[in-house]
UniProtKB/TrEMBL annotation:
Descriptive protein name: Amidohydrolase-related domain-containing protein
Signal peptide: none
GO MF annotation list: hydrolase activity
Residues covered by the Amidohydrolase-related domain: 12-267
Entry-linked Pfam families: Amidohydro_2
Source species: Halorubrum aquaticum
Amino acid sequence: MLGLEHDFRIVDTHASLDPDEASVAAHGRDITPERLEREMHQAGIVRAVASPGRRASGRSYLRANNAVARLSVDRPFVAFARLNGPRDPGSGPVSTVRNLRAERDDHHARPDDVEQYSYDDRFHGFTLVPPYDGLPNADVLERLEAADLPVFVHGGKRFPPDAVERELLGYDFPVVLAGFGGYPLDTGLMNRTLDLLSEYDRLYVDTSAVRYREILERGVLEHPDRVVFGSGAPHVHPNVGVMEVLTLDVSEDLMRRVFAKNPVRLVPALAEGADV
């Protein structure tokens, strides 16, 4: 795919790295850090947040997090630590019963893990994927609140915006809801997420996998300081995500906010000249 031509500085808040064969087998997308960097360059993306792809059930993210941090050295990647937990993210009676008996296992994130990642200058935030990894316990979330680093959350039909509100928005840390909270392609959930932006000052959304122009434009026009660019790479070529924003009927100033100003405010390590 040809490289895009534009005059924007673009940083990406939503990319994943599969650092080893086990991750590739579980996640199903074999792409090297070099290829991801090359695709980012083709799209004009100068720096990107990266966290591990999905691990097999019962596996810790400790080694994968450290691998992503190692692979980010001397590359335009900003490492985020991915956290898992024993709690079922559902809201039904079955989930409620399961959570009454949910006990943390050895492979689940612990408060000390969060503290270690928070003080390790290789990591600049956290990633939660409750539909696949479960929800961390309250003591882990409380430690995230103390760290006050951005937490990128993958929601959607299996962890809808109302569940995000119930489980996470009561804590005082920045939450960035991937895909406007509507993955995969659920416009009702996306619109519900945009309603929540009016209620919670520390809630943000990224543009990955939204695909609907009118919803993207609504988000950017109504909440210009709370929308950040995310490509969803490597599952989507970064060119695709960039083009979806470039073709919106909004001003260049608003595009610059989405592509760089808003992400840099959330993740200072994405700034030009930042020491990462």
